[in-house]
Each structure stands twice: as structure tokens, then as C-alpha cells.
Amino acid sequence: MKNNTWAFIDSGACSPSYNMALDEALLNWHSEGSIPPIIRFYTWEPATLSIGYFQRAEKEINLKEVSKRGLGFVRRPTGGRAVLHEHELTYSVIVTEEYPDMPKNVTEAYRVISEGILKGFQNLGMEAYFAVPQTEIELQALKAPQSAVCFDASSWYELVVEGRKVAGSAQTRQKGVILQHGSILMELEEEKLFSLFNFTNEQDKARMMEKFNNKAVAMNDIADRKISLIEAKAAFKAGFAEGLGVKLVSYQLTEEQDKEVKRLAKEKYQSDDWNFMR
């Protein structure tokens, strides 16, 4: 029988290592059956550049600029491209692969989970919709992204408003559990973002920035009013509840759970062995 009650955590602003450690810990606890499926909202302190599991940090990222700007840096356990987490709401969804009506296909599961984000944008009065790659060029871009920047890369069922991408997500499956987390852009500083990547030359950088500007947008650049983080959280929390057909109940970490997350953050997500493994 389908259990329609899920847990919900709003972690607030956390360090990059703690954010990734908590997502991994929630996956582990859910795989053990000690917590129900869970949705988590969080932000980052300091603002952070996260890279995908398969990215090559020293080749693709301007690490000196990341340090110069006082940004955090962390490798995610999920795939995808690099994301600057600053003016955004970040979410994660942790649910077993065996959850009723959850598709086995990764792409279709992404669509089902992302239904909550779609509803969130609609709750804010924005005409969001899912788009899929249509041309051969777009399909090839899925296999070989031209840029290290997340919002520049095509994906299946990406969320679009006024023809431009407004949310980027990544997924992993471990221990029979799906972890999907992603970035919902509220504001965007393109110059700052593109200063964090290595380019062959300035012309290449300018070309990528132009392409990015045509493909990605932040919600407050197109909304008819200024949307606050508080308003966004309420809209997307209600969106996930509606989109997934679940009831969300607040969840509080125990002292032991918090200690476990901090241990994982220190031992794994703060380590150079993890962050510069490629």
C-alpha cells in the first residue's frame, strides 16, 4: 500500500560539505528503512561552486578564482555539470526505487520527481513546462556537453519558462534509493559564474556566455514581481506535495544523526581526495 506521508526538512544555510553529507546520510537512512521518503530544502553558506561527480576539477574549473571570490567548493555525489549555488533554492528528494508508481527508467523517474518543481513554478504564477531535446544537435548535447556549466547543458524534461531553463537537477541511485537534487535559480550573475571556468580563449568564453544567456534564466528576471526566498519555499513545498500526491510532515534530525552528518562532511566532502579525485 502506498504511504502518502513523506518527511520534510528545511535545513536553511549550511556549509557545502554539510549539505552534501546530509543528502548522502538521508539516502543511507532511507535505504535502511529508518526514515520515510524525504524532501529537503537548503541554501549555502558560503556561496558555493559544486561540480558533478564525473567532472575534472583542475581542468574545467578556475580554482584560483573560486578561492579569490571566497566561494566554497565541493564535488556532488550526483552527475551533471557545475553549479554556482548563491541566489537560489536548492532541493533534494530521497525515495526508494521501489516506491509505488515510481518509474524504473531514470529519465521517467526524473520527470515524476520534477513534477513538484513544475507545480512550484505554477504556484508562483509562472507558465513553466517540461521540454525535451527535439533536434539531433540537442540530442548529441546530452551525450557531450560543450560547457562545464550546468544550466548550459541540455537534459531530458528540463523545466522551462519563456523558452529558457529555470532549474537544473541531477540524480544518482545507490542502495536501491533515488537521490535527486537540484538548483532553482532566483537570481543570476553571469559574469561571476563564467569567471569560475577555464576557457581556451576569450572568444570561446564570450560565445558560451551568449549561448548561456539564450538558454538559462532566473525566476526574478522574468517574474512580474520580486519573489522572496520565503515565498519560493512555500510555493515549492506545496508544489512537491501536489506533484507527488503526498503529505509532508516536518522532520528533525536527532543529535546522533547530526553527529553522523558532520563526521561524513569532515571525512569525505571536505577532503581533497574526494573533491579533486579526477
UniProtKB/TrEMBL annotation:
Keywords: Acyltransferase, Ligase, Transferase. Gene3D superfamilies: Bira Bifunctional Protein, Domain 2. SUPFAM superfamilies: Class II aaRS and biotin synthetases. InterPro entries: aa-tRNA-synth_II/BPL/LPL, BPL_LPL_catalytic, LipM, Octanoyltrans_LipM/LipL. Catalyzes the transfer of endogenously produced octanoic acid from octanoyl-acyl-carrier-protein onto the lipoyl domain of GcvH, an intermediate carrier during protein lipoylation. The record marks 165 as: Lowers pKa of active site Cys. The active site is at 150 (acyl-thioester intermediate). GO terms for molecular function: ligase activity; lipoyl(octanoyl) transferase activity. The keyword Isomerase does not apply. The keyword Ligase applies. The gene is lipM. Its EC number is 2.3.1.181. Residues 33-248 form the BPL/LPL catalytic domain. In the reaction, the free carboxyl group of octanoic acid is attached via an amide linkage to the epsilon-amino group of a specific lysine residue of lipoyl domains of lipoate-dependent enzymes. The reaction proceeds via an octanoyl-thioester enzyme intermediate. This is Octanoyltransferase LipM. Monomer. Pathway: Protein modification; protein lipoylation via endogenous pathway; protein N(6)-(lipoyl)lysine from octanoyl-[acyl-carrier-protein]. It catalyses: octanoyl-[ACP] + L-lysyl-[protein] = N(6)-octanoyl-L-lysyl-[protein] + holo-[ACP] + H(+). GO terms for biological process: lipoate biosynthetic process; protein lipoylation. Belongs to the octanoyltransferase LipM family. It comes from Peribacillus psychrosaccharolyticus (Bacillus psychrosaccharolyticus).
